[in-house]
Give the backbone structure.
Amino acid sequence: MVDVPVYNEDGDQIETVALDEGPFGGRVRAALLKQAVVMYQANRRQGSATTRSRGMVTGSTAKLYRQKGTGHARMGSARTVIRRGGGVAFAKRPRDFRQTMPKKMRRLARNNAVLAKALSGDLLLLDQLQYEQPKTKRFATMLRALKAERGCVLAVAERDENIYRSARNIPKTDVCLVEQLNAYEVLRRGRLLMTKDALASLLASPRSDEGDGSAEGRE
């Protein structure tokens, strides 16, 4: 069991929740987390860089002048890579950097990332979070009270537009639905904040080693 503190908006600890490691994979698998992070980072690459080779440049393929007798160095066509306006040696082509992982592995990596945050003391639970209207100052004050202003991810059970608008202008702060969490999103920030409802929703979802009906998450 891992003891996870529960805080209110003022940064006061009001209780402690005992978290069972079983639903989160039992132990942290560093190799799996690295594989998941590399996959999500690779899937963010566009791979659209392209340059023209000498075969794609418009121009004649004939020699510019004869080989001998001109007094100049020998020269090939105008499309050669050593001339201005010519092609590029080893030209770049569009590439697909996408990687894939089975759904069970993605889900296990997400749960392992949450477990790693809990073991390191960087998982904080919020008793409740309700905003009648967007208040960035109120949200920033809460982050300072929780010592999460240097970077955090807030996972909520249901989408709340007021919470999203309150946090969108705060640097290094992300708000997402708990069903959209993935290993990369959890690990890329220093702290992971979750509402108690979000944690209950995460525990109610299929476990990493059971079933296959889970959200894939953002890439």
